[in-house]
Amino acid sequence: MCRGVQHPIRGLFLRSYLAQISRDKLPDIGSEYEGDADTVMDAVEFVLQNFTEMNKLWVQMQHQGPGRFREKQEKERSELRDLVGKNLHVLSQIEGVDLGIYKETVLTRVLEQVVNCKDDLAQYYLMDCIIQVFPDEYHLQTLETLLGACPQLQPTVDVKTVLSRLMDRLSNYAASSEDVLPEFLQVEAFTKLSNAIGKVIEAQVDMPAVGAITLYVSLLTFTLCVHPDRLDYVDQVLGACVKKLYNIPKLEDSRAMKQVVALLSAPLEKYNDIVTALTLSNYPRVMDHLDNGTNKVMAMVIIQSIMKNNTFISTAHKVEVLFELIKGLIKDKDGADVDELDEEDFKDEQNSVARLIHMLYNDEPEEMLKIICIVRKHTMAGGPKRLPFTVPSLVFSALRLVWRLQGQEGDIVGEEVPATPKKIFQLLTQIIEALSAVPSPELALRLYLQCAEAANGCDLELVAYEFFTQAFVLYEEEIADSKAQVTAIHLIIGTLQRMNVFGVENRDTMTHKTTGYSARLLKKPDQCRAVYACSHLFWVDDQDGIKDGERVLLCLKRALRIANAAQQMANVARGSSGPVILFVEILNKYLYFFEKGNQQITGAAIQDLIELINTEMQSDSATPDTASDAFLASTLRYIQFQKQKGGVMGEKFEAIKF
Asked: Average of pLDDT values for 345-372?
């Protein structure tokens, strides 16, 4: 009947029925119909013959009926494809089909039928069937034969998907057990696959970029599974991709872009180490083909990989390569519209770059200085909008090197780039000056003060003085906002208080300037708080620290006068004198210096101040304030506690009566 029925669809179903009922009656090893050695070949021959005839009938279906129904015919053919594929499944289930029979008979005959049928639907489906139904080890041993058929397929066949599936299958096989890896090396799988992909791309001139890149992604995945130690193979795959993209300056196809990102992400995921990717010469060349948006996404992936794996980049050369990779985040590409940037995304990107700078580290001072210079070169080219994010990280990276070099003087003879604190401070001055282009005076002032403190640690008085001078210039000329001035003056006071490198003359100049600025703040309460904070500049609680009790008392008395003026102004403006919180704060300063042994602060003075506060609180014009009441109550409890504690301190506090 099979030989008699010529109608393609009827013939297909008839032969499918024949395959189904004969499946458990084949003379296979272990079956009840097993005979001598040749019977297995009989079974193979029977199934192969049925497969060949069914495939012919399947291909013939496209010539049935008028051409205008071609689309409907193709749909019907596609639905009937599994009838043909079942034969290959039956072949793969025959126990007697070992590698020898598969190699010599099965694969040869099946591929011959696939190539000769010259039908793109049949060729694509059957190649996919071969890959899916036969064992992985068979594919590995017959790789050359299987790949040799690919260039012979019709130009319209989706060979890239066929090859991608083959490589994915082999990659999974390699990942399943380390014992099979020698087999891959033995058959030179990488070379064969690489050559086959090259031939396919060459043969299919019209293949879109996304198709070629998809093939390279699969080849790279295969390479990373089978030859993770062969970085030259990885670089070779990337190089082949660069060659394919040579005539496409910037990819515009979103699918192709996704594939390139997958290609670039694969080595990062495999090695968990960006340092390995930095040794691949073709890596940045592939990135150059991405558009600005995708380039930034890829740069973020690289930075996240570094942060996640806590990877330190330790040589100047690798830092240079890394910054070349992430240049999309560091500076605007030509023609890019800065105004179109999303503010939140921009902040995330720049904060990531700032975090990255802390991962660039080397124990050798000379190499570390080279790294800092490279980072400076790249970040300074980023434009004023990026500097407030990147400069602080760069400054602290340089200061970390300064702290390691503390105590070194001058230049080291006989070295090209001597890493000395003086040299680094010169560099830091130039870096912070760049912030004036932004402008960002508050940030620059903070960084100058940090540098001054570092110079103090290195015992470099002139350098520290220069940094303070720059901070004062910024305060005078750039910082106009009253709140920013208050913050800045307290930062200056706090930093100056910790400085022990200044001589008497320089320190007097600085403290005089600071107290002058404090008294000239806009609001009286701010003035008062800044002036009493200045008292700490004249009493440093160190062994060699300055202890000038008279000037401390002068500051506190001045603060009291300002607090009194603030009360009077409130009385005039609002008809009530306002809270007495400033007086309580000054009382606490009196107690602090009294406890520290300042002879100018007496128990009687503290007693007078407590009485003044009580008088102010009980006056008719006083504004009730629970915070001030609680603060005063706590302060008085503290005095009582010190009295009860006894000892020398207890005796001192006994002088305070209230």
From this structure: 92
Distant-in-sequence, close-in-space partners of 517: CB < 8 Å, separation ≥ 6 = 475, 485, 489, 492, 530
> Residue 273: which of 238, 302, 294, 316 has the closest Cα?
302
Residue 452: name the closest of 482, 421, 478, 410 by CA: 421
pLDDT band at 5 (very low <50, low <70, confident <90, very high): low
CA distance 44 to 94: 8
Residue 54, domain member (yes or no): yes
Q: From residue 109, give the alpha-carbon distance in Å to each of 44, 102, 128.
A: 11, 10, 16
Determine which of 1-5, 148-152, 210-214 has the lowest per-residue pLDDT on average.
1-5
Residue 15 lies in a domain: yes
Higher pLDDT, residue 113 or 583: 583
Domain end marker among 282, 315, 338: 282
> 553 by DSSP, 3-state: which?
helix
CA distances to 120, 175, 553 from 604, rounded to whole Å, are 106, 85, 14
Q: How far apart are CA 180 and CA 138, in angstroms?
A: 12
Q: Tell whether 179 and 218 lie within a shared domain.
A: yes
Question: Residue 89: is its pLDDT beyond 50?
Answer: yes
Whether residue 185 sits in one domain with residue 100? no
Does 262 lie in the same domain as 181?
A: yes
Q: Are residues 191 and 130 in the same domain?
A: no
Place of tokens 């001597």: 418
6 and 120 inside one domain: yes
pLDDT confidence of residue 328: 85
Distance CA 448, CA 470 (A): 7
- The answer to whether residue 385 is domain-embedded is no
> Does 126 lie in the same domain as 161?
no
Angle between helix 524-534 and 504-519 (nearest 10) = 160
Burial class (CB in 10 A: 0-12, 13-18, 19+), 291: middle
pLDDT of residue 561: 95
Give the chain's domain count: 2
**pLDDT value of position 623:** 76
Q: Which domain holds residue 19?
A: 1-134
Quickly state the pLDDT bin for 411 (edges 50, 70, 90).
very low
Q: Which one of 226, 255, 282 terminates a domain?
A: 282
**Whether the bond into 284 is cis, omega within 30 of 0:** no
* Higher-scoring residue by pLDDT: 533, 213: 533
- Does 120 share its domain with 161? no
From residue 339, give the alpha-carbon distance in Å to each of 48, 186, 342, 535. 67, 57, 8, 48
Confidence check: pLDDT of 407 > 60: no
| Of 138, 258, 178, the residue nearest 210 (C-alpha) | 258
Looking at the fold, whether 63 and 166 belong to one and the same domain comes out as no
Q: Is the pTM of this model over 0.85?
A: no
How far is Cα 377 from Cα 327, in angstroms, rounded to an integer? 12
Q: Quote the CA–CA distance of 219 and 273 in Å, as a whole number.
A: 20
Strand (E) or helix (H) holding 257: helix 254-271
| C-alpha of 616 from chain center | 58
Residue 510 domain-assigned (yes or no) = no
What pairs with residue 622 in β-bridges? 578
Inter-residue contact 20 to 77 (CB < 8 Å): no
